[in-house]
Each structure stands twice: as structure tokens, then as C-alpha cells.
Structures
1.
Amino acid sequence: MKSAVTVCLVSEARQGPFVFHGASPAEALHVGCRRAAELGFDAVEVFPTGAEQLADCDLAGRLADHGLRLAAVGSGAGWVRHKLSLTHGDARIRTEARDFIELLINIAADHGAPVIIGSMQGRHEGEVSRADALEHLAAALHHLGRHAAGRGQTLLYEPLNRYETNLFTQVGEAASFLRGRGIHHVKLLCDLFHMNIEEADPAAALVACGDLVGHVHWADSNRRAMGSGHTAAAPIALALRHIGYAGYLSAEVFPLPDADTAAGMTIDSIRALDTIAPRSTP
Ligand code: LER
Ligand code: MN
């Protein structure tokens, strides 16, 4: 499994669960990439304002300077900044939301990375019934999954906890939805913070998702770096090995007590997995 740490380029998300922030997007990217490399991470996960910023921030240069990969790109600014949702009652807003993500997919794919659909999935409310919202979600995932595949990528869909969505809060339900609707080229982002709230047994839930696990947000129960809360990392690591997961463990956590400490604890927790469970353990 590979390690990644989050870098936030969105000023409105200054208080969000991302390890590296900055006084400016350029500074966040510069400092985040430098510290990620110094600490030994394989990659960074970037949360940009949109495709334009991602295209114009010399991401390729920063990654090359530090020998890093791009693990994934978050699309949450589409919601935080523009209030775009893939399940909105207004078809024009749903189309804008799709377009926003399509453009992000194009740039992320140039760097070999998938895009995450998290908060842009929205929720069912008001005039939009659950059935309607799930139709809209399925249509968007079909469309964006095909678009990602055309660029040699998969798309990542992230179930969130009940305070952030009412669509899918458990990874197993989301896996059944993808399988049942025949949605291809879309994998699940399993965020251990959300799973700590929603799953009876996070390790078993990961095993049930099997090869649909496409990315992992490596966060403790309190959304701080792994080792800060009460999540047991060993059963999670064993479950991921059992399903042959070879993707990223990416720290989407608060920069507490500070960014460097959170990043350092994260990389230590990932390295410690080798001693907890040998790589050959089924
Ligand atoms: C939001 O809580 C989250 O986990 C993000 O990864 C979604 O954009
Ligand atoms: Mn997450």
C-alpha cells in the first residue's frame, strides 16, 4: 500500500480536514510537497478550487521537484464554493456539477490520478425524493465513470457520514448500488473517519467491498492522524491486504496539533503496519 497526505488549495476550506494549508495556494502546494517528500510519503492528494487552478499551479513541476505522485484530486470545492450538486433538483445545476467534475478529471488524468466525488454527491431533500436522488446519482456516476475511463482513470465515489449526506453512509450499501446499477469505472473511497461513525465493523465492511475499494482516507476516529484516536489500525490493514488492496492510504485529517506532527504520525502509522502484519498474511 502507498502513502499520501492531503494538500488544500481552497481558502474556504482552511478549517477543513486537510494536513497542509497555506497563506496562498502556491505556498500550500510548495510546503505540502516539500514536507511530504521529506517525511517519505509516496504522493500528495490535492483539493483545488477547480480545474483551472489545478492546470495553472505547476503541479507537474512541484511533483517532479520532490519525486512525488498525485494520489487523487478532491472535487469538494464544487460544493463548498459553487454549491454544485450531482443530485440537485434543478437539471441545470446537475449539469454544471458534471461539467465541473469532467474538467477536473481531464487535468487529474494528465497526472495519472483519479477524481473524488464526496460532498458534490449532495443529498435528497425538499422536492427531491430519495429515488430521484439515486437516479441522478446513478446517471452522474455512469457518465463520469465513462469519462474517466476515456482518460485511462477510474472515478472515486465516497460514502460520507450521516451529517454530510443521506444517500450512502455505509460502504457496503454503496458497493451494492454500483454493482446493482451496472456502474463501471467507479470505485469506492473508504474514509475511515466516516466508517468509524457508520460501520458496525469497518474491517468486515472493507472485505465485503472487495475489489471496489479504490482509495482509503487514513484517518483516526477523531479525524486526526492515525494513532490519535481509538481506531484499531491492524484489523483494517489486514482486511485491506486480504482483498489485495494496493492503493493509497491517504491522510485526510486535521492538521493537529500541527501539520508536521499530523503528517509525521501518519507516515509512522503506515510504516508500523509492516510490523503489525507481515505482507504475506492473507
Ligand atoms: C468529507 O467529509 C470528506 O471526507 C471528503 O473526502 C469529501 O470530499
Ligand atoms: Mn474523506
2.
Amino acid sequence: MNFVSKTLNKAKNQTKSVLRRSTDRHVRVAVTGLSGSGKTAFITGLVHQLLKAGIPNQPSNLPLWHVTREQRLYGVERELQPDLAISSFDYQGAMKSLTDMPSKWPTSTRNISELRLALHYQPESGLLSKFTERSTLILDIIDYPGEWLLDLPLLQLSYNDWCQQQSDKQALMKSSPHFEEFYQALLKLDLHDKADAGDIERIAKLYQVLLMDLFNERGYYLAQPGRMLLPGDLAGSPMVTWFPLLHLSPEELLFHSKTSSKDSFYQVLQNRYQGYVDQVVKPFYRNHFCHFDRQVVLVDSLTALNHGQLQFNDMLQALSQIIESFQFGKSNFLRRLFSPKIDKLLFAATKVDHITRNQQSNLLQLLNDMLRETQQKVSLKGCDVETMAISAIKATKHGVVESNGQKIEVVKGRKLDNYEQVTIFPGDVPKRLPKLDFWKQQGFQFVNFAPPLTLESEVQPELEHIRLDHLLQYLLGDKLE
Ligand code: GDP
């Protein structure tokens, strides 16, 4: 090889290496949703499918994802996560639960966690494909409770405003047998007295029990402060040890704020509220939310339908509040406080394997209707918004049975409560938000299923899904061109 061609080769190789470094891309995809919406199952199913898709010479389980369809994906591997202060998403633990005997659904999201994958692929076209055989997309997946986004309004509310808002929700809170005890404790509290840490702890515990009961037993979704339901590493700290004074009128609240001394119950509660806003809510938006590139919001409409009309409406309200976090046009206060940069927002109706195939489009239409309702108040301009109906880990099989000469679609699976194998017609999913008459006539009873059975005996488990490939194409397609 002569000097000129040697030099040219060297230059080409250097260009390649510089290009490879500069073409390595990075995307942070956050996953949220209210408790039970399916975040843990979703991330587990997604990572499982991604790792499988990266194994060479294996048939792809993601046919609608262009990079796999075009056989341009060379490998997918886990990498060390970048943020040392955030827990790791426990993928191994989740897979272990699913493959245990008997198999169990993994433990639900309680806190923020993350996981990093490197996706090695062949660029499709353009300059990149000429110089690089391979590029790498670094994918960070961040999981966090949707309840944390319900705290967004607190950024604009004083403690008194917030107490007043909670007071307006008393009718709903009274549906819990725990309301009375909390309310009586409030009545006995002299807010001008010197604060006693034990008393505050006791009453905050009563408030937490009330919120938990409303959430877990009565199917309500709206709970503030969000960290009282899912405190994560704040559990037991004064930061989540306070409560609303919902027994007071606005005038009485104002009176207390003007007349109570620094160390009084009133002032301590107000300080803790402000501390929570400044040291918990704001840092979440500043340190995490602002660094997400793309966001998946999971919505479990089926469970909300099962709970009934009041709870379903409550979920709509919670969803509407969650969406406000993504409304950051120029004039929005969130944009003024921080600078979020999410460019794709995907709402996914989860657990579609609960229902028959012919009902899946209804679930999607219902989700769209729910979003239309909630988006009347908020605008998501500047963000590309999409909706889908998915199942991250398919726990049922579809079937058809004949009844009175008619073919009826059914689903087959094991019931979650007793692992009994059932073949059922789960019922129709409404295409639109059900009206009052509808709720009066009938309720919903969508059955919850145990994880898929096929895993029990398998060394290399193979999870099935519904439309994760479609979802991956939407979320990552442009990053892998
Ligand atoms: P999280 O609180 O958002 O983390 O919710 P999880 O991921 O823990 O899901 C809550 C429950 O929903 C699980 O325990 C399962 O019973 C159910 N689930 C979640 N995803 C699916 C799915 O794709 N199919 C089925 N059949 N059930 C699911």
C-alpha cells in the first residue's frame, strides 16, 4: 500500500471513529401511570422483548419495529445506569417472580428507578450508514409513580389554599370509615398550642390511613400529597408528616396564619407543607422530569371501570392533573420554573389481554375519549401525542366458542385470585365515557389474570405481548434510522 492510500485509509478510519462516537445517540424514556396501571409489568415485558430481539439469528417477536423487521438490530445489552442516586429497576427480580412456581406478578412501582440498555444497530440510510457499520442508541428507562405528578398543583398553592381544596373533597373522603377518626383528631387540635411532634405524627398517620383506604379499598386515585401514598425513601420523615386542616373555613385559616406563633401546630404544619413543596416536589421536576425526552403514561381503564362511576370520574380527574405536567407551552408556569423537553408523549391503555380482540379497539376509543375530556382543560402543543392499547405481558389466549349457533370471542387464562383456569367472555368495553344511565344499569367485572403459565417449566422464558413493537416504533423508530 502506498503512502497516499495509507494516509487516506487512516483518515477514513479516524472519520469513522469520530462519527461513531458522535452518532451514538441517547434517549431517556420515562414511564409513569397511577398505581396498578402496569408500570413494572410494562418495563419488565419491554426489556425482556428488547433483550430477546438483540440475540442474533432468533426469530423476532417484534415484527412491526422497523429495526428488527429490517434485521438491523445487532445486539441489546444492559449497561451501568448513569445516576448513582436512583435505585435500579429490578429487572432480574421481576423476571424471577414471573418464572417462580407458582408464577407471580412482580412487585409494583413504589419509587423512582431506572435501567440503561445499549441498542447496537445498523443505521438505515444517509451519511451515518456510509461511514459506520454500527451505531449505538443508549436507552434509559425511568420508572416513577404517577401519583408524584399529582403534586404539581402544590407548586402554585399556599398551605391555606391546599387545605381549602382538600376541604372541598370531604364528601368523597367520607366514604371511608377512617374519615371520622381523622376529622375528630383535627377538631381536638388547638392550632395555637406549641406543636408536639408525637401529636403531628399521630394525626398524619390517621390521614395516611385515610388516603390508603380511599386508594386501596375504595378505588379512588386522587391523593395529596402523592408521597404520602408512595413515600419511597421519605417514609417516616417529617417531610411527609403533615395533613390538611380541612375542618377550617378560609377565614379561620387566614386568622391562624396571622395570629399563631412560630412554634405553634399551625406554623409547623405550614412549614412542613412548604418544605415538601420546595424540597420534594420541585427537585423531582428539576432533577428528573426536566431530563426526560419521551414519556409513556400507562392507563388502566379496565380496573377503573370495575370500581364504578365515582371512582372512574376520580381517575379522569387524576389523569387530567397528570397531563398538566406535560402542558408546558411558553406561558405555562412549569416552563417558567423549569425547562421540560419531552417531545413525544404516549398514552397507553394497558392490559388489553383482559378483553377479547374485538373489544380492543373500543378500549383505545375509550382512552381517546378520556383524553379528549381531560384535554379540554389542557393543551399539549409542542409535544407529539399518541395513544395505543397494549399488553406488556400477555397472560391470556384468545379463543372462539359457539353458543346457540353463534361464534363468540373469549379469553382463556388463570384467574389471579385462585389460579383456576377459566374461559370467559369478559364483556363489552364502552367506546365512550359511560353516561349516568349506563352506570345505573350495569357495572363492569373484568377479571384479573395470573401471569402466563408457559413460563413455569422454561429455562429461557418467552413472554408474549400485544403491540409492544408498534410502541417501540413510535418511541424509538426515529432514533434508529
Ligand atoms: P404498577 O403499580 O404501575 O407498577 O403496576 P404493576 O406493573 O405492578 O401492575 C399491576 C397489576 O396489573 C399486576 O400485578 C398484574 O396483575 C396486572 N398487569 C399489569 N400488566 C399486565 C398485562 O400486560 N396483562 C395482564 N393480564 N395483567 C397485567
